[in-house]
């Protein structure tokens, strides 16, 4: 069975701020992206790794790989102006027509290997597998008139990556014109009228987005080292 992982890291990290995009910032002594690629490689070295970066960053990334002696084999693909376009470019680089592809945010280095494994397993039989976690807090829905209403949280899930698919289906799904509702790959898939399958993600697989997330990431890594 062919297996690939598209690691999307073609963004600018505006919410993080600072001169260096968040995917290259060091946590635990090396760039965030290297942690993410390692999780997949250490799970199964035969997974084809496709790293989507802003086209202008290729030489910077290659310098980082030399600096950190990063040897994990991967293919570089230039990203687009949106996450949708970056994923689509990654999908174009896959030449085989049968198999599975996990699409994962480069800035989610704390994904657990058993979640990735389960995502490939479920997608093989059902077409898709989307990692989600339950909410711990109460939630309220806001309306335009400034009011808010209680919502039953058991009917909601936070959506993470990996989002894993049969390659023929997700390639077909990405042939559409991009719309605003495409906030992730699941929404593109279900735009075809196909139901997505949900799997349990791991709560610590958060998306590094703002500066305090980096501090939390450092904390998680130091805790792991101490174990
Ligand atoms: N044109 C884009 C935009 C985003 N991404 C990737 O999609 C993932 C999730 O996006 P997000 O956290 O929003 O990253 P950024 O777009 O970089 O962040 P920001 O919105 O703060 O600029 C990240 O790994 C990001 O690099 C991408 O590959 N190509
Ligand atoms: C794909 C994603 O990480 C799932 O939670 C999320 O939708 C990305 O959103 P962003 O707007 O790019 O931060």
TrEMBL record:
InterPro entries: IspD, IspD/TarI, IspD/TarI_cytidylyltransf_bact, Nucleotide-diphossugar_trans. Keywords: Isoprene biosynthesis, Nucleotidyltransferase, Transferase. SUPFAM superfamilies: Nucleotide-diphospho-sugar transferases (SSF53448). It holds the Pfam family IspD. Pathway: Isoprenoid biosynthesis; isopentenyl diphosphate biosynthesis via DXP pathway; isopentenyl diphosphate from 1-deoxy-D-xylulose 5-phosphate: step 2/6. One of its GO terms (molecular function) is 2-C-methyl-D-erythritol 4-phosphate cytidylyltransferase activity. Its EC number is 2.7.7.60. The keyword Transferase applies. The record marks 15, 22 as: Transition state stabilizer. It catalyses: 2-C-methyl-D-erythritol 4-phosphate + CTP + H(+) = 4-CDP-2-C-methyl-D-erythritol + diphosphate. Transmembrane segments: none annotated. It is an enzyme of class 2 (transferase). Signal peptide: none annotated. The record marks 153, 207 as: Positions MEP for the nucleophilic attack. GO terms for biological process: isopentenyl diphosphate biosynthetic process, methylerythritol 4-phosphate pathway. It comes from the Bacteria. Catalyzes the formation of 4-diphosphocytidyl-2-C-methyl-D-erythritol from CTP and 2-C-methyl-D-erythritol 4-phosphate (MEP). Belongs to the IspD/TarI cytidylyltransferase family. IspD subfamily. NCBIfam families: ispD, PRK00155.2-3. This is 2-C-methyl-D-erythritol 4-phosphate cytidylyltransferase. It comes from Algoriphagus machipongonensis. The gene is ispD.
């Amino acid at each position: 069975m062919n297996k690939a992982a598209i690691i999307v890291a073609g963004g600018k990290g505006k919410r993080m701020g600072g001169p260096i995009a968040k995917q290259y910032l060091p946590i635990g002594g090396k760039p965030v992206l290297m942690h993410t690629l390692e999780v997949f490689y250490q799970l199964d070295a035969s997974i084809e790794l496709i790293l989507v970066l802003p086209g202008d960053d290729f030489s910077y990334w290659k310098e980082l790989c030399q600096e950190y002696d990063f040897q994990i084999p991967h293919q570089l693909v230039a990203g687009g102006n949106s996450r949708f376009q970056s994923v689509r470019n990654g999908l174009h680089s896959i030449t085989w027509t049968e198999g599975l592809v996990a699409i994962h945010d480069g800035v989610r280095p704390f994904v657990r290997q058993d979640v990735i494994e389960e995502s490939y397993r479920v997608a093989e039989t059902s077409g898709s597998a989307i990692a989600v976690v339950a909410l711990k807090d109460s939630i309220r829905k806001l309306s335009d008139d400034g009011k808010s209403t209680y919502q039953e949280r058991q009917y909601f899930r936070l959506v993470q990556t990996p989002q894993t698919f049969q390659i023929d289906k997700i390639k077909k799904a990405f042939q559409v014109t991009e719309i605003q509702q495409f906030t992730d790959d699941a929404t593109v898939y279900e735009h075809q009228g196909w139901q997505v399958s949900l799997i349990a993600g791991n709560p610590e697989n958060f998306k590094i987005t703002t500066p305090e997330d980096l501090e939390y990431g450092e904390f998680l890594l130091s805790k792991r080292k101490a174990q």
